[in-house]
């Protein structure tokens, strides 16, 4: 069975080794090698992960480190676009209908699970990808956050509360 993993922000910040956010970088780098070389998994870099990671970099207090991390991130993004990264970018992952579902469900998930819009957009993209590829592919989110790594499917039916 083919495996597809959507990369969450805590994983990417460890891959980049962003200071004060990279406490799991050895473990993440080992998992990355396993995913790419042993499992031959398809890794997908969602837009939310790119934006959240960029925001973390922009808030690094030491300008020298901030510039180095920003350049490293820019290089990774260029590699992604050019097909030289171990992951691919998921084009057109959020359409107007997806954004509407996220907006309708955000208050409930923010309160019940402390889940942000970035997480919900990754789940939305993952759900859409699962529907597109069907049951022969294992589609998951690679995260260090329990609420995302344990994710199966989110019910987008809007509650009346």
Read across the widest sheet, the strand sequence of neighbours is: 3-2-1-4
Q: What's the β-strand tally? A: 4
Any low-confidence stretches, pLDDT <50, length ≥5?
A: 156-161
Q: How many angstroms does the end-to-end distance come to?
A: 40 Å
| CATH homologous superfamily placement | 5'-nuclease
SS-based structural class?
Answer: alpha/beta
**Number of helical regions:** 7
Structure characteristics:
57% helix; alpha/beta; four-stranded parallel sheet; 7 helices; 4 strands
Written description of the protein model:
This protein has 7 helices and 4 strands. With 161 residues, the protein is of the alpha/beta class. A 4-stranded parallel β-sheet has the order 3-2-1-4. Helix 1 (9-16) packs across helix 2. The model is unreliable at 156-161 (pLDDT under 50).
What can be said about this structure in brief?
With 161 residues, the chain is of the alpha/beta class. The protein has helices at residues 9-16, 25-38, 47-58, 63-81, 96-113, 117-133, 146-149; strands at 2-7, 42-45, 87-89, 137-142.
Itemize the secondary structure elements and their pairings:
Blueprint: E1 2-7, H1 9-16, H2 25-38, E2 42-45, H3 47-58, H4 63-81, E3 87-89, H5 96-113, H6 117-133, E4 137-142, H7 146-149
Parallel strand pairs: 1-2, 1-4, 2-3
Helix pairs in contact: 1-2, 1-3, 3-4, 3-6, 5-6
